[in-house]
Amino acid sequence: MRIRATTRLLAVVGDPVGHSLSPAMHNAAIAALGLDAAYLALRTTRDTFPALARALVGAGGAFNVTIPFKRAAADLLDRPSEAVRRTGACNTVWAEGAAIAGDNTDVAAVRAVAATLVGRRAVRRSLVLGTGGSARGAAAAIAEAWPGAEIAVLSRDAERGAEFARWASELGVGCRVFGADDDAGADLVVNATPLGLQPGQPLPLDAERLKRLACGALLDLVYARGETELVRAARNAGIAAADGRGVLVAQGAAAFERWFGVAAPVEVMRAAVEDALRP
After folding, report:
1. pLDDT at position 54, please?
2. Is 191 within 8 Å of 220 (Cβ atoms)?
3. Catalytic residue among 37, 41, 70, 74
4. DSSP state of 202
5. Are 151 and 139 in contact (CB under 8 A)?
6. In a shared domain, residues 232 and 205
């Protein structure tokens, strides 16, 4: 990567962020199109995130947002997209003149990948694991793809679970908190927690619980070399499952097009991700 005085700086901002494949994916796309830009991973803190975000945009750059700053990013925007207004979360930020603009490209990406995973089956009941910005994007995606579907939310924090259910209800989505002993069925489960980023972490739902839920399909927004433990557990239970690589590529391609105003080289981006995740 060669950086010149004219090079446009792009980044993924979060904590943790070292695991992210966004730099590999976007730098492959930048090289393929011969653009004068460079994409980095930048770790920050809750206190320093706003200043870093404004500095990047002020310097003519743009950035993606990952855990745990997607809701904080929405608060920085002068021009939020409709997806940001609906979810209160933002994962893609850029400048429009002196204004800070942003979108939540997670919504369309999750909707597309989940629909492919589910196929022609109807989703009447779904379960979202987590309550952060990624979970909000997943809930909005489910509501768009399958209007009228009930969404249950599973959280380790009862207060955050209740807050999520209230937010979803205000969005016009039927939502309830999923209890510790709740075994109501789920046509689709989406893991929007960071569990699985580190080897040996406990699964948000184990294989036995997935079987009891009669889970139809599972989308794990986490990705890992090979596959995540949650995806393997689901497949061992006979459940159609996918990790987050497809969502990563889809949301990244949408972000790339917002920043550069040209069609993203999607196959180049996908190849970079698949190469990095090869066992």
Report:
1. 96
2. yes
3. 70
4. P
5. yes
6. yes
